[in-house]
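Anyone able to model this chain together with zinc ion?
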Amino acid sequence: MLKLFDTMSKKKRVFRPLGKTVKMYNCGLTVYNFAHIGNLRAYTFADLLRRYLQYRGYRVKQVMNFTDVGHMTEDEVISSDVGEDKMEVAAKRERKTVWDIAEFYIKAFLEDSRKMNFLEPHVRPRATQHIPEMIRIIKSLVKKGYAYVTPSGVYYDVSRFKRYGRLSGNTIEKLKAGAGGRVKFNPDKKNQFDFALWIVDPNHIMKWDSPWGTGYPGWHIECSAMSMKYLGKTIDIHTGAVDNIFPHHECEIAQSEAYTGKKFVRYWMHCRHLMVDGQKMAKSSGKFYTLRDLEEKGFSPLALRFFLLSAHYRSELNFTLGALKTAEKTVKNLFDFTFRAFSLDPKGRYSREFSSFLKRARAEFVRHMDDDLDTPKALASVFDVVNETNRLIELGKLSRRNLREVFRFMVDIDRVLGLGLARVAEGIPKSVKRLVEKREKLRKSGKFDEADRIRKDLAERGYEIEDTPDGPVVKRNWLK
Ligand SMILES: [Zn+2]
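re: yes, here you go
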């Protein structure tokens, strides 16, 4: 029985989807910069969740948006409608148009997603392409008396929504007492905690016509509109990072439920922050990395993926380059191990006992993942298999058939981990084998320089040659 921690009820609940297909929405990136590794933690979590739901036999429809219309740089400001526009700041910084900024960083994020082995969401809607949908919802909220029109824009009246504050704990009483950060005084607001649905600003670079004046939508309304359009009024799972809980998700609930009169989300799931060297990630202190930064330092994106999976998504995780190095080594070992299971031909007899040990290990893996995606414990069951297999190979107590079962086990659990372990079945390409033979001939005829050039070439492509008394052995670096 799969249990997931629901931020709304603040406990683990048995997961039962509403229909045959699990409907999942992931709050996506604001595309004014490269995703940093903290963002990637949230998306690795979303990908893990999707993969595990599929592993458990559910069909999943996954929607992940791009926020490509600017929202504000002062994230801590409660209503996110004061401050500077992130997209415009980036456009000035890079001397591009806001549209080019969005295009550029969307492309970059798609590249990062591919490198991180994220499954492609079924829909990747962009906020700028859903302005009419947002206007329709705002119109209805005004008509129903949940929102009011002022010269500076349309605001949502939080006092009208009785359940406001239920997700985050920031009820209006608590906000009045100072919870949720400071609020810049806005004379047009009835209540300073009201948030903007539409901001009238004819000077904004990205702007659209609306019944209330030329301007642009508030941030929160984007996700409500896109979630409803692609997944319907009520969805199963909505994910984000913990800093999305308030105000973003609290506001999404208020708007969506006032609009439809129905429950918006059945399970709210939030991933904890990533710390860097024990501190909050910040560009100013240099405690800030993108995937590109790590690749430049020679790391594989899969090392980051594994590092992020190695901690439970709701627990604190501290990133250090040392820890990433360890993660990379572990991933390499998992590939080498899977390759050994695929290719070794041991002479031992088939062990039934070992076969049932594997079945128990798989059950353990599932039991831990069923417990709110407890990846550290699930991974421990995988390492039990690795250690026990290696021990028995040494003792000559496994057969080829046993190892085939190990190989299938690794490929099976990798549907969840998403490292791409099945690639080891590709083996060593013939072209590489031929080059190794050529190098050996060159060496034997004393042409060491030429031989060395081939060795270096292959090393760059991820093939290490080890010279043994029985001749050269090629080892593939599966992370290249
Ligand atoms: Zn969102």
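The two ends are 38 Å apart (CA to CA).
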